[in-house]
TrEMBL record:
<feature type="domain" description="CUB">
    <location>
        <begin position="7"/>
        <end position="120"/>
    </location>
</feature>
<keyword id="KW-0597">Phosphoprotein</keyword>
<keyword id="KW-1015">Disulfide bond</keyword>
<protein>
    <submittedName>
        <fullName>DCBD1 protein</fullName>
    </submittedName>
</protein>
<keyword id="KW-0472">Membrane</keyword>
<feature type="domain" description="F5/8 type C">
    <location>
        <begin position="224"/>
        <end position="361"/>
    </location>
</feature>
<dbReference type="Pfam" id="PF00431">
    <property type="entry name" value="CUB"/>
</dbReference>
<dbReference type="InterPro" id="IPR050633">
    <property type="entry name" value="Neuropilin_MCO_CoagFactor"/>
</dbReference>
<dbReference type="InterPro" id="IPR036609">
    <property type="entry name" value="LCCL_sf"/>
</dbReference>
<dbReference type="Pfam" id="PF00754">
    <property type="entry name" value="F5_F8_type_C"/>
</dbReference>
<dbReference type="InterPro" id="IPR000859">
    <property type="entry name" value="CUB_dom"/>
</dbReference>
<dbReference type="InterPro" id="IPR008979">
    <property type="entry name" value="Galactose-bd-like_sf"/>
</dbReference>
<dbReference type="InterPro" id="IPR035914">
    <property type="entry name" value="Sperma_CUB_dom_sf"/>
</dbReference>
<feature type="domain" description="LCCL">
    <location>
        <begin position="139"/>
        <end position="205"/>
    </location>
</feature>
<keyword id="KW-0812">Transmembrane</keyword>
<dbReference type="Pfam" id="PF03815">
    <property type="entry name" value="LCCL"/>
</dbReference>
<dbReference type="InterPro" id="IPR000421">
    <property type="entry name" value="FA58C"/>
</dbReference>
Amino acid sequence: VSTGNGCGHTLLAPHSGTLSSKNYPGTYPNHTMCRWQLQAPPGTSLLLAFGDVDLEPSEHCAHSSLLLSDPQAGTAYGPYCRNSVPSAPLLVTNSSSVTVLFNSTSHRSGRGLLLSYATSQHPEGQSKHSLPLAVRFSVYCPAGCKDIHGDIWGNPSQGYRDTSVLCKAAVHAGVIADELGGQVTLSREKGITLYESAFANGLHSKRWVSRGCTPRPAVGPVSCRLPSPACDDALEVAAFNASSWWHEVDVLGQVRAWVAERAALGTAGHSWAAEPSAEAAWLELDLGTRRNVTGIITKGSSEQHDYYVMSYRVSSSRDGKNWKPYRGSANQEDKVFEGNADSHGEVSNAFIPPIVARYVR
């Protein structure tokens, strides 16, 4: 739970989370306050990782401060600011409940704060979003990494440049869900010099080309490869169905039907499109038998018309009669997937956990 007018990006999940001050990594505002109440499951304790604590210095951190308190043990950590920083990047508590309090008065500088937490069920610690030189290693990524500051490079199938924001790359690749976090294993490889940009799971990576200039020339271009989610490649669709489809009439009076069968990715020419007056359009895929569906890729139709779907929900069924909405890892409300921003690019979204169904709508 978070309260106050100084709260920035915050995602607090049962086993991990990320929190930041308002405007981070820009200068935090004057005269604000935020209180985060972190609660771990019974029988576990909290581990807090200080990603960044940059509050304007003052005596005893009186002007701006970060204070952590452990009500169960009656202990406190801090106050912290720029001239009084945490002694270690990882704080291991003996409590399942910690209150994080951020205060600011008048100041001129400071990025604010970025913290993440996990529970003692993950003793290997959390990622601070940087890569050591190990060939293969594993980190625990806290929930909420998707919207922290930083760029990623690469295509999910190719790997990632070694300066990537690690956990954002894992969300982009569909290895973990941003709303829950999770364990990520990586391996360092060399020889990949071209990365095509891609839009996946709400994150747009950047295109990057190696030009033979690296910090470690003896090693050569280095990338980090994330394990791919379990996937049997593209599924065969036995039949398509839709709520409606558009019968386009051109200037010569000829009719062209944008029928459901044209929804298959890679179909030449025009795609499927619902009747323009339809308010609740849906497209249905019959996979022929129950299959394990790990994600979906969408693309618009650029032939003559700049058509694409900006967002959508997903439902699934095992019998074609009883439908179950997809609610993602947090399982709280129907998940709205971010779709396309143009009619040309492909957008990937992973299902974490996967869907087991014959019909997907």
